[in-house]
Amino acid sequence: MKALQGVEGHVEWVEAPSPTCDVGQVRIQVAAAGLNRADLLQCAGLYPPPPGASDVLGLECSGVISEVGAGSSWQVGDRVCALLAGGGMAQEVVVDARHVLPVPEGLSLAEAAALPEVYSTAWLNLFQLAALKPGEKVLLHAGASGVGSAAIQLCKAFGSPCWVSVGSADRLDYCEDLGAQGGVVRTDGIESLSDFGPFDVILDPVGGNYAATNLKLLARDGRWVLIGLMGGRAAQLDLAQVLAKRVQLLGSTLRSRDEQFKADLLSDLGQQVWPLFGEGRLSPQLAKTFAIKDAQMAFAELATNQISGKLVLVIDDSLA
């Protein structure tokens, strides 16, 4: 099969071994794969796959099941999308059958490829780890990103008002159109978010240079969920505020979680979130698609940090 691999900072569509399909797994003929910042980091040599995971790029994909291992209820021909630890940017991928969800009603396979990673991340961190309750106020940094786009819609659907920090006025408009109450452009200073706070939950892919302000913006019993380090890994904090506010700082990664954890997460997502696509309350925010031959252009565009929503690579345009 052909697969996309990161080689010295760029991507190459190369021949790779076809994986075997064992008990409890399914083989997917890949139609499309979502592009995430983790793919940029892996391509740059900064985020290697977990032990045992494929070194092929791609943490999510969509396609059609072409083989079913023993013990799975999926059928050959089912249209699905999948959460992966790697391997999605290839002509085919083998995955634990429990990490697969049906393509939501009314969506194309290209649209479905934009769902698993960002909705899993938003649901895990806001609703499972931070235990977000209706009416609690949420701050989403990088609100126009793929995860931010999913998180805004989930907050709206489950009754929690949210605000964002973003990189431009256009991106702020985008977030408000999705359901955010408002927010700030980061070049104007995130300190002005205090006008909308305090916040019960902060979803933070930035870290470092936002840390001290996050602590000031949190409400008593606030939960700060750290999911990335775009702003650096070092921070100086006033620990007296942590004590006084009873703040919980939660570090969270998804890719390295074990198979059962991901199976439970996808089961919850399928029950609680997936029906909302059919009801029109959630939608994939597919900004742009690229043919696999243009993968390097897609990676370069994501690296600009100017994308609102998701980029998707089309692997097989006869399916997508």
TrEMBL record:
<dbReference type="InterPro" id="IPR011032">
    <property type="entry name" value="GroES-like_sf"/>
</dbReference>
<feature type="domain" description="Enoyl reductase (ER)">
    <location>
        <begin position="6"/>
        <end position="313"/>
    </location>
</feature>
<keyword id="KW-0521">NADP</keyword>
<dbReference type="InterPro" id="IPR036291">
    <property type="entry name" value="NAD(P)-bd_dom_sf"/>
</dbReference>
<keyword id="KW-0560">Oxidoreductase</keyword>
<dbReference type="Pfam" id="PF00107">
    <property type="entry name" value="ADH_zinc_N"/>
</dbReference>
<dbReference type="Pfam" id="PF08240">
    <property type="entry name" value="ADH_N"/>
</dbReference>
<dbReference type="GO" id="GO:0004315">
    <property type="term" value="F:3-oxoacyl-[acyl-carrier-protein] synthase activity"/>
</dbReference>
<dbReference type="InterPro" id="IPR020843">
    <property type="entry name" value="ER"/>
</dbReference>
<keyword id="KW-0012">Acyltransferase</keyword>
<dbReference type="GO" id="GO:0070402">
    <property type="term" value="F:NADPH binding"/>
</dbReference>
<dbReference type="GO" id="GO:0016651">
    <property type="term" value="F:oxidoreductase activity, acting on NAD(P)H"/>
</dbReference>
<dbReference type="InterPro" id="IPR013154">
    <property type="entry name" value="ADH-like_N"/>
</dbReference>
<protein>
    <submittedName>
        <fullName>Oxidoreductase, zinc-binding protein</fullName>
        <ecNumber>2.3.1.41</ecNumber>
    </submittedName>
</protein>
<keyword id="KW-0808">Transferase</keyword>
<dbReference type="InterPro" id="IPR013149">
    <property type="entry name" value="ADH-like_C"/>
</dbReference>
<dbReference type="InterPro" id="IPR014189">
    <property type="entry name" value="Quinone_OxRdtase_PIG3"/>
</dbReference>
